[in-house]
# Entry
Amino acid sequence: MLAPWRNFCQGLLTLTLLLIPFVRVDGGSLLRIDLPTLSLFLGGRAFAIDELYLLLLAGILLILLFLLVTLVCGRLWCGWGCPQTILTDLGDWFARRLGCKASAGRMAATGGQKLLLHGFSAVLALLVACNLLWYFISPYAFFPALLQGTLPPAGLWFLALVAIPVFLDLVFVRRLLCREICPYGRFQSALVDAGTLTLRFHPDAAPRCIRCGACVRSCPTGIDIRAGYQIECINCGRCLDACRRVMAARRQTGIIRYTFGLDDRGPRALLNSRMLFLALAFLTAGAVLIFAIASRTPATLKVERPAAAPVRILADGRSVNLFSVVAGNRQRQATRLSLVGLDAAGRPLLLLGPIDDILLQPGERRRLDFSVVRPAGAPRTTLRLLLRDASGKSLAEAEARLIPPPAGDPHDQ
# Structure
């Protein structure tokens, strides 16, 4: 029977989604988007908003994986891992515990049973909303803020905007989403291949069917698998289990089974040009993402020039340029950094400001304002800024142009 395996997969996925926000790696979240700092925490490492190209690469990788899994497994995700299916299955489980009657995804319940079902759906909806919010606000900060009444209004609005639609979905929509609304089934029909895993009523064994209707009654979307392939089928395998139970009583094998393609061509049918192309694209995107992460600099340095910042001329003919930089620490540990300025020839320039012994926490970015003193008579030059750690190792660098004194200044030779 497939039911225990399906329940195991659904339970494992549910626990994974619930527990990920609680997992910490080297003091950082395993997976969380921190809105105040506009950073993505992944595997304990912080990725700033200026590294969105990594998120784009990861998105492309996930899309390719999605297409690849769909091409191989069809709508198996819908029946075994989709959160909509898992939540609806939990509602059906609770309904059975209350003694409600369910058939083909439809449920008959008394007024009291409906009240209890609605309460259970409300708890599930609130849990879903909280779990989603934990990917933006760490649960270690969420619960104290909730108990103390200091949760930001945006967090409360987020909970409401997520919990209410989920509750309405669980009460009124349920399997209708899989059968009529969800675009994935229609999209999957365009990807189905000669080797795609398909749940089917085997025509060679059709004469053994006793027309008991167990497969139809067990189907959550209410289709009759005996009528052939239908996009409403979510590949959950409930009809397969129902058929096996009936046929086992007659000491016969079930008529419904999973096959690779409608023609049952076996796993070798997956070795086709479409599959190989997607697999190659997925591996290429994965390699590019790994290279991009591995080649990240341990720190970042971005230069800005304050708007309308004047060039000051000192009595000895030197000129002073005002600059700002944003220094960021990408490392997993706090680091003390210093800023060094060089001219185009590699000669050091005098920097005035808080540029030494800067302590940055993991993932922290800080704005630094400072001045660069340009020697009198020095040619127009490029400013090269280096961000160094305590050992003198350069972790990041940036360039900017020094503005010369106004034209005609006697010191600007």
